Target: 8639_t:CDS:1
Amino acid sequence: MAFYSCPYTYIDSRICGKKCYQKEECHIHWKRQTHISCNICGIPIASSYGMCMKHAGKYYSKANYYKNKLQDKKHDQASQ
Model:
């Protein structure tokens, strides 16, 4: 069996490089999410919004607002 070098890239741009049997990634990183770059500043991230915490703040707060609004609406309907 041949050994491969793990190509997983950490968030600070270092490469894992551990020896592994799989071509894809080592036993530690094979289930990890792939990091994409922030749409605005280019920092590697693993966010569903496609932006880093600095730039996705307004989207997080908007999602939280609508989630709370929906919960309040359900609570009001249940109490009637």
